[in-house]
Design goal:
The structure is a homodimer of 318-residue chains. Chain A is of the alpha/beta class. Chain A has two domains: 7-115, Nucleotidyltransferase, domain 5 (2-Layer Sandwich); 129-294, ATPase, nucleotide binding domain (Nucleotidyltransferase, domain 5). The first copy, chain A, is built from ten helices and 13 strands. In chain A, the strands form three sheets. The first copy, chain A, has a five-stranded mixed sheet, with helices on both faces. A five-stranded mixed sheet of chain A has the order 11-10-9-12-13, sandwiched between helices. In chain A, α3 crosses α9 (299-309) and α6 (214-222) crosses α7 (226-250).
């Protein structure tokens, strides 16, 4: 193990597998990715990842023992810190011992696996929108609504590594839609991309198109389509209410909002801010900054590397 | 200063001023209290407290420099950690430099002032309902709804010492009542004692009685009065929803519920648990224990002493 070497960073999602090298200051030196082969079984999925790791190391001419460590973000749920993963969008991995397999592959270097949303938040706090603040909620609004919490300058793990799960904060207990979790009126049940698409189609938007996406819905909104606009308002309202609750409960300074839906820009952030300010009225909540995530596509790899280079703030346990 | 001496513990609320001595293991050795003279001006209020401190020290035959320190819980809001207090229910103190005054009074021993709800949570985590757990939300449901958060084994301060403020988590954004904070549908706007009384009187309960209390309302509910029962159901529902949101956002293990309204027992906890379980459906939230606070009247003094004896967990800054 080389303390001053780069970290191997791995980002595993339902859409892509990405592997890269990240230097101690957080710059991404190289990255390679492939679409996630979601139909494969557990071992073939692992072999796909294994090949990608070999390619990145070979390209750089590095042996595993020249790395500072390996950080990995993976879709949840997972058992933490054991890194036994069951990513919702990768059915082939159910209770897959990802951390142990990476350890076997890489030898005696630190290997740390955390939720991909947690990694993105660590990245935003380390080098992005939350830089310089001690109390930050990072959110990822996409197919799901995830997040992570940095409080008093340290990533909060919680009882099972799930702290920051803002997607299941309740914003509409009576009239909100049922949520996949079994509850009702959760933020995620309203604001996740597929839920917005489904709601818009019920209102008459692109009713015949089975593969309509939240991006198309946001684009139509940007062109003035009333249902597209209403859908972004609906998402923004739910986000604003949930963020106001979180700001009060956790005494935050900054909330960074990333993920695909955040690309909708003002269309989403205008109603979000409107409803945030309706509900965040205390002296210590009203000035909380709600801002777009700053790091974009590299956040997953940077955050995975943060688990190695800034373990005292973001990992905390081993 | 004597590291092994007792701590002087001070608990300042809108109803009473209490001062006591607490030994390092958390046992309350002595206590004296007086009703809070809320009509007095800042200096006379201070002198009342000063006399009480002198009485407790004299009774024990102790000089200030024989104390391990002084911990003080006071009603919020306050500036933390400077301990400049403006307790809502004590109008005579507005930006009163309580921490500095206690320091002047007591000399060169550690003096630490925190929110009274935070102190109660520290007490419950140290020696009460949250003992042995690393992720605990402590709540005080009374004239207001306050709380504090212990996450990853440490009290969370947040940006301004206000973390744990669950009273302003939104539980009814559309149809909920306006809140004193300026928002709408906050937990506190529904579940604080005076709000319940006001709601019950609108439904026809004791309409002529200007000084009706939440305790009378709960007692009437216990005797089967339908509006009393409905009021406890209303409070329990709001608490259950807010606690479910907090359990998900913060990945909790235990929520302790104290304060006057928690004395209503099953009348409050049954609907609370019903609605908590409607909304807390994730693997990591459904088994969160929601329990009555365990320490009762001594929690304020024990928690104030925790700021001295367990500063690494509950105070963190100086």
């Amino acid at each position: 193990m080389a303390d001053t070497g780069p970290a191997l960073a791995v980002d595993i999602g339902g859409t892509k597998l990405a592997v890269g090298l990240v230097e101690p200051a957080g710059r991404v030196l190289s990255r390679q990715q492939v679409p996630t082969p979601v139909s494969l079984d557990a071992e073939l999925l692992w072999r796909t990842l294994d090949v990608l790791i070999s390619a990145v190391l070979a390209e750089a001419g590095l042996r595993p023992d020249e790395l500072a460590g390996c950080g990995c973000g993976c879709g949840g749920p997972m058992e933490w810190p054991s890194g036994v993963v069951s990513p919702l969008n990768i059915p082939g991995w159910r209770r897959f011992p990802l951390r142990d397999r990476l350890r076997q592959r890489l030898g005696q270097i630190p290997v740390r696996v955390h939720n991909d949303a947690i990694c993105m938040v660590a990245a935003e706090h380390w080098l992005g929108a939350g830089r310089g603040y001690d109390n930050v909620l990072g959110m990822v609004v996409s197919t799901g609504v995830g997040g992570g919490l940095v409080l008093d300058g340290r990533l909060v793990q919680g009882a099972s590594g799930n702290a920051g799960h803002i997607g299941h904060v309740v914003v509409d207990p009576d009239t909100g839609p049922p949520c996949a979790c079994g509850g009702r009126g959760c933020l995620e049940a309203i604001a996740r991309g597929p839920a917005l698409v489904s709601w818009a189609q019920q209102q008459g938007w692109r009713t015949g198109q089975a593969d309509a996406t939240a991006r198309e819905l946001a684009d139509d909104g940007a062109r003035g389509h009333p249902i597209g606009l209403a859908a972004m308002h609906r998402a923004g309202r739910a986000l604003g209410i949930a963020i106001a609750s979180a700001a009060s409960l956790c005494d935050l300074q900054v909330v960074s909002v990333g993920g695909g839906l955040s690309q909708a820009g003002r269309l989403l952030f205008d109603p979000l801010e409107e409803f945030f300010h309706v509900h965040a009225r205390l002296d210590f909540t009203r000035d909380v900054q709600v801002v777009p995530a700053a790091l974009g596509i590299s956040a997953g790899l940077v955050g995975a590397a943060a688990m190695i280079f800034k373990a005292d703030r973001y990992w905390l346990e081993d």
